[in-house]
Design goal:
Layout: E1 4-7, H1 18-24, E2 30-32, H2 41-51, E3 56-61, H3 63-74, E4 79-85, H4 94-108, H5 112-120, H6 131-145, H7 147-158, H8 164-168, E5 174-179, H9 187-196, E6 201-205, H10 212-215, H11 217-227
Parallel strand pairs: 1-2, 1-3, 3-4, 4-5, 5-6
Helix pairs in contact: 1-11, 2-3, 4-5, 4-7
Length: 231
């Protein structure tokens, strides 16, 4: 079976996909590609392609989805299936780009935990029984990755290209999935991606915000299995 390559979001690692890895292990060859080593989306995508199988399915959440779109732009013939979760095909808005600068300065000054707690994490999740557990996982991932990764990823997001033309050219089976209460990447971004990719499926997960893989793992697992034609 074609390997599935998973790209995590900003300040996230394999724990972001823990429930999906548990569900798919033994059924699909899985590979997680970090998006931590470079400060541009283009370099991150090129590095992923240098280490990826010749042909693969590709799923990315948030920043992972942004990098996934660049992977598709650079090597469309290597992608068998595409899943874009809680992400955004557009270049970063100027006001968001400027908002990152004081965050970077505070993180350089040793305030990564405070930035994650006060400015980023409150926007992530829907209210629900798993909210605190997921927030704790997010904090643990961020602290483990550290301030240098935060700065590189912030720079990559600031400089990212618009990928709408890339998506118009996609011809492979594509899943567009989002948490219904995602305030970081709202529904209009996902409707846009759905409209750009002919034949794509748009899946909206109730009771989830920006991280449905952890907030509503069973619903996400079902959607991914259907996308992979495992169900």
């Amino acid at each position: 079976m074609t390997p599935l390559l998973l790209l995590p979001g900003m300040m996230c690692d394999a724990r972001l996909y823990g429930p999906q890895i548990a569900c798919l292990s033994g059924r699909v060859p899985l590979q997680l590609a970090p998006v931590t080593a470079y400060d541009t989306v283009e370099k991150l995508a090129a590095d992923i392609l240098a280490h990826a199988p010749p042909r693969f399915s590709l799923a990315g959440l948030s920043m992972g989805g942004i990098v996934a779109m660049e992977v598709v732009r650079q090597a469309p013939d290597r992608i068998e299936r595409l899943a874009l979760l809680d992400t955004n095909p557009r270049a970063e808005l100027e006001e968001v780009r400027q908002r990152r600068e004081p965050q970077i300065e505070r993180v350089r000054a040793g305030e990564l935990r405070e930035i994650m707690r006060d400015e980023l994490k409150p926007n992530y999740l829907a209210n629900g029984p798993l909210r605190q557990d997921v927030l704790d996982t997010c904090m643990a991932m961020a602290i483990d990755l550290g301030p240098n990764v935060f700065e590189r990823q912030s720079r990559a997001l600031q400089r990212r290209p618009d990928q709408q033309d890339t998506l118009r050219a996609v011809k492979v089976p594509t899943l567009i999935l989002m948490g219904q209460e995602d305030r970081l990447c709202p529904i209009d971004r996902h409707q846009l991606m759905h409209d750009l990719i002919d034949g794509s499926i748009l899946e909206i997960v109730e009771g989830a915000g920006h991280l449905p893989t952890l907030e509503q793992p069973e619903a996400v697992n079902m959607a991914i299995q259907t996308w992979l034609e495992l169900s």
